[in-house]
Specification:
Layout: E1 14-20, E2 30-36, E3 39-45, H1 58-61, H2 63-67, E4 77-79, E5 88-90, H3 93-111, E6 116-119, H4 133-141, E7 145-147, H5 153-163, E8 179-183, H6 187-190, H7 195-203, E9 207-211, H8 217-220, E10 224-226, H9 233-246, H10 252-258, E11 259-260, H11 262-269, H12 274-281, H13 285-297, E12 301-305, H14 315-329, E13 338-340, E14 364-366, H15 370-376, E15 384-388, H16 392-395, H17 399-407, E16 412-417, E17 429-432, E18 441-444, E19 451-454, H18 467-477, H19 490-498, H20 503-510, H21 518-521, E20 538-539, E21 565-568, E22 589-592, H22 594-597, E23 607-611, E24 616-623, E25 631-633, E26 669-675
Parallel strand pairs: 6-15, 7-14, 8-9, 8-12, 9-10, 11-20, 12-13, 15-16, 16-17, 21-25, 22-24
Antiparallel strand pairs: 1-2, 2-3, 4-5, 4-17, 18-19, 21-26, 22-25, 23-24, 23-26
Helix pairs in contact: 3-18, 5-14, 9-11, 9-12, 9-13, 9-14, 15-17
Bound molecules: ligand MGD (2 copies), iron/sulfur cluster and molybdenum atom.
């Protein structure tokens, strides 16, 4: 075993340990965890990270239930029953790793190294548990590469091309705004620490606009709510841009000095009158016009752009048009003016570049098409699937195809996990992983400007081990590393990674502090931070950007007579993606508008079938005007146990890709809904 002596000794006294939350959430809270007798007693927020402000979400307050859950994977285990049943025999670590290494080598000999596919995402992982030893191992092995596109691929490509991922407006600075536009984001569920600043702005007299197919709790407090049809944001944003130009309210001085491509953008927006955009989006034209006037005439004005608008065929173009708005209207240069999307690039590090082993030019598999890769790829077929930091059966598109792939008898699947997820049940070998309360990591917020160290507060539960140790041990078995040569314990991994960080950041987090990003975590765009494009300009019409439809080109709604309803599956307050989904009580509820329920004879709480050609989901229904007509909604991250037939929204989500960067089209499913006859 590698050196793990830096873990604090199990103290039998009561103490409070300071750490941070690395889960896939924009906030990256600072935590105070009370431990007694080596066991977690309480998890709470601390004041170390300013945006945390001493409170955290309900999910992480009860994360100890997950750490000590009866569903925790405690020991390595080898499958003994049919795939999917979750029937395993416990095995010693050495034996399990020997078996994994042997099967990887065998696959390489018989089918080539590309027949091994690592499958991970790592949204809830910091710099020690993703893209470190794992990347070294699979690169040196020559495995297929994975395009990690399940989330934020189109938004990231748009922000990179246009602004070089310039740092955004901080949560705290929302209090200075006079107009806040929340576009495709749902902060009351998905990034709660922005909320108090929005509320403060509202108290100060700011107007709030929410653009979301659902009347979310935040939308209820908004001055304007535009309940757009999913996938129509492009037209809405272009109509605002068109009006700014046509009415002479575009900021010509800013455009001339700081942007390229303004004329081409103007031409792309020319056909998007308010009337056309309102008709396409299914919204009220007067309200859209009013937003146009408010946005043109108010400063500071800030746009919180989320990820809801990216998860469809127009997601890349829509995000580009939204991000173009503050440039066209000249909203930068003042505190509380500009935009926020992902701030993950604000600390100036790039994990990928730390790893010395070069990335081989092997096959790239788009993770959104895992089902296809497992069932159709033949050159070579995938023979070994190594899943970690991910629960693909719950979270990837086209669930039934993924399931058929995982059922293949000739596929050897390794799942390295904390709990017995739906995916882990299909494993040939399960390996137990530590949680963030049992290992070190470095976590950074992609909303709040927090970069912090995550420390173990307890000893690993069972025989769980951190990722870098396990991948290093595998590398030794595969002959890629000498057994005794720099064993990668927690200390070494931490030192290696912190050495790659900018020195100021390393110094702060090394002392257990919170590094705050540019301008001490409160940058003014175009004063403290500038586009990181090569010419430091905003590229409003980046001609070379590879989009499948053409820049700012609108692709129409894929609804058909057979499947007229758009299904969306946004983040819920109960889970982080599928993490904690094991604790979701009861059968999930599909939300449906009364106008859609009535003609189908569906009443509140009825059992229903949601279906299309890809699959069906058996659940119950809540009839509510919270979703707009023509749209139904199921929560993201459901496990099989949350529906009557074990399928979730992803059984209905096509594995088609977004117009930019091969992103997932989670909100582009078209379905119908019928009452389900329940036979007793
Ligand atoms: N509690 C909790 N927090 C989370 C997560 C979680 O699962 N649970 N997930 C984390 C992760 S991985 C991410 S990426 C972020 C995501 O954070 P958000 O972007 O806030 O999350 P989503 O719920 O995907 O989408 C936001 C909103 O977009 C709306 N929407 C759907 N389709 C469209 C559309 O076409 N146009 C517009 N304008 N709106 C649309 C949805 O109704 C939803 O209210 O949240 C993170 N935080
Ligand atoms: N229908 C629908 N599906 C969606 C979305 C949607 O909006 N709608 N959103 C998508 C989005 S935004 C995202 S980001 C993806 C996320 O999808 P996933 O990447 O699958 O994320 P999680 O569901 O959180 O699963 C992460 C798993 O990694 C494990 N894990 C965590 N830390 C470690 C570690 O250190 N070591 C190891 N070995 N394992 C660890 C956790 O126990 C957990 O089971 O889901 C996507 N799926
Ligand atoms: S999930 Fe988000 S809100 Fe909850 S503790 Fe973690 S960072 Fe904070
Ligand atoms: Mo995500």
């Amino acid at each position: 075993m590698a050196d793990t002596d830096v873990r604090p000794p199990a103290s039998w006294g009561r103490s409070t340990v300071h750490t941070a939350c690395p889960l896939d959430c924009p906030d990256c809270c600072s935590l105070a965890v009370t431990v007694e007798g080596g066991r977690i007693q309480k998890i709470d927020g601390s004041h170390a990270a300013p945006s945390t402000d001493g409170f955290i979400c309900g999910k992480v307050r009860k994360f100890d239930q997950r750490v000590y859950s009866s569903e925790r994977v405690l020991y390595p285990a080898v499958r003994r029953g049919p795939k999917g049943r979750g029937d395993f025999t416990v095995a010693p670590w050495a034996e399990a790793l020997d078996l994994v290494a042997e099967r990887m080598q065998q696959a390489r000999t018989e089918f080539g190294a590309e027949s091994v596919l690592p499958f991970y995402y790592g949204g809830s992982n910091g710099f020690l548990t993703n893209d470190l030893e794992d990347a070294r191992l699979f690169r040196q092995f020559g495995a297929s590469r994975l395009a990690r596109t399940v989330c934020a691929a189109p938004t990231s490509a748009a922000a990179t091309a246009m602004y070089g991922k310039m740092a955004g407006v901080s949560y705290e600075d929302y209090a200075h705004a006079k107009l806040i536009v929340v576009w495709g984001a749902n902060p009351p569920a998905s990034g709660i620490h922005l909320m108090s600043h929005i509320k403060q702005a509202q108290k100060n007299g700011a107007r709030l606009v929410v653009i979301d197919p659902r009347r979310t709790p935040l939308a209820r407090t908004a001055d304007i709510h535009l309940p757009v049809k999913p996938g129509t944001d492009l037209g809405v944003a272009l109509s605002l841009i068109r009006d700014l130009f046509e009415s002479g309210r575009a900021d010509r001085t800013f455009l001339d000095a700081h942007t390229t491509g303004a004329d081409s953008l103007r031409a792309a927006a020319a056909s998007w009158t308010y009337a056309r955009a309102a008709a396409v989006a299914g919204i009220d034209e007067t309200q859209l016009r009013l937003l146009g006037d408010w946005y043109a005439n108010t400063s500071p004005a800030v746009i919180r752009c989320g990820w809801g608008q990216e998860r469809n065929r127009n997601g890349g173009a829509a995000t580009m048009a939204i991000l173009a708005l503050p440039a066209v209207a000249g909203k930068f240069g003042v505190r509380g003016g500009g935009y926020t999307m992902s701030n993950s690039a604000a600390y100036g590090q790039a994990a990928e570049s730390w790893i010395k082993s070069p990335a081989p030019e092997t096959r790239v598999v788009n993770m959104n098409q895992l089902g296809r890769a497992l069932t159709e790829y033949n050159d070579p077929p995938v023979k070994v699937l190594f899943v970690y930091n991910c629960n693909p059966l719950a979270t990837m598109p086209d669930q039934n195809r993924v399931k058929r792939g995982l059922e293949r008898e000739d596929l050897f699947t390794v799942v390295f996990e904390q709990t017995m997820t739906d995916s882990a049940k299909y494993a040939d070998v399960v390996l137990p992983a530590t949680t963030f309360l049992e290992h070190y990591d470095l976590a950074r917020g992609y909303g709040a400007y927090h970069f912090q160290i995550v420390q173990p507060v307890i000893e690993p539960v069972g025989e769980a081990r951190p990722n870098h140790e396990v991948f290093r041990e595998l590398a030794v078995r595969l002959g890629q590393h000498e057994a005794e040569e720099d064993p990668l314990g927690q200390t070494e991994a931490l030192l290696e990674v912190t050495a790659q960080l900018p020195r100021e950041i390393a110094a702060i987090i090394g002392d257990g502090g919170v590094a705050r990003g540019p301008a001490n975590g409160a940058p003014i765009q175009f004063a403290d931070v500038h586009p990181k494009t090569p010419d430091q300009k905003v590229h409003l019409f980046p001609e070379d950007l590879p989009t499948t439809a053409g820049l700012y080109a609108f692709q129409p709604d894929p609804a058909t007579d057979a499947y007229p309803l758009a299904l969306i599956s946004p983040a819920s307050a109960h889970t982080v993606s599928s993490t904690l989904g094991e604790f979701r009580p009861g059968i999930a509820r599909l939300k449906m508008h009364p106008d859609d329920a009535r003609p189908r004879g569906i009443e509140d709480a009825d059992p229903v079938r949601v279906f299309n050609t890809l699959g069906e989901v058996w659940c119950e229904v809540t009839i509510t005007p919270e979703v707009r007509p023509g749209v139904v909604s199921l929560p993201k991250g459901l496990w099989a146990r949350s529906t009557e037939n074990g399928a979730s929204s992803n059984a209905l989500v096509p594995d088609t890709l977004t117009d930019l960067a091969g992103g997932a089209c989670f909100n582009d499913a078209r379905v119908d809904v019928a009452i389900r006859k329940v036979v007793n």
